[in-house]
Amino acid sequence: MSALTEREAARIAFRALRANRLRSALTTLGIVIGIAAVIIGVALGNGVQAFFDDVVGPLTTQITVRSMTNVAGGRQVHELDDADAAALADPVAAPDIASVTPMVTGGAVARIGTRTRRINVLGTRANYFPVTDRDLVAGRFFDDAEEADASRVAVLGPVPARELFGGDGSAAVGESVRLGRQTFTVVGVVTSNSQQDDVAVLPLAAARAYMFGDRGTLDQIVVQAADVTAVDAAEVELGLVLDARHRISDPTERDYETISLRSLIE
Length: 266
What we know:
Layout: H1 3-19, H2 21-55, E1 62-67, H3 82-88, E2 97-112, E3 115-124, H4 128-131, E4 136-139, H5 144-148, E5 153-156, H6 158-164, E6 176-179, E7 182-190, E8 199-203, H7 204-212, E9 220-225, H8 231-245, E10 256-260, H9 261-265
Parallel strand pairs: 3-8, 5-7
Antiparallel strand pairs: 1-9, 1-10, 2-3, 2-6, 2-9, 4-7, 5-8, 6-7
């Protein structure tokens, strides 16, 4: 095409634009809005992904195991117990499982002077805090020695710390709180995670000795895979170990259930 022809084509195009100004403006506006929507969508997506990775990402290696109350076929339920937790922690039987956190749960009335509040009570091992990615507002977590000694120490969630100590959660550290009929020393207060905020976390041995009794059974076990890519393998190993211990040959008749946080997210 010659230069003259190109000029003529441009002149014709501009003449058409002038003749259809409203249509041209709307078309241009549509293009601008479309491009802006794509840019905003990508930016929001990246922002949500970054927030998700920061908040939920550390928990995607978790697999929670719970006993089931009703089992297909009417077979007897074998409750989760300490031996199950020990078997899952065997690196030979389950090489893709990095940690095992047993738990017992219940409720109690927490009391400070005249202030009372009914809260959840969780008895567990010291590795519960890093596994569940809990951070501290004040104080510290209890340690393995305190768990082994059944020390009467407690880490409070933000709700009881706030409600029982006049709105100042940090004031709870070092104070005594009565849980049921027993007194525990508050050693730490954790930040909110919007799920387990109304809770007192105790060493497993102390929860059994002073709150729930020691039957050797567990309400749940949290298993952590070595990394995100090992979650599926860890879940398979978990099933093989517990099926063998509970004498289960048909997976549809399992007396336990597993919940993978990554599966829920997907």
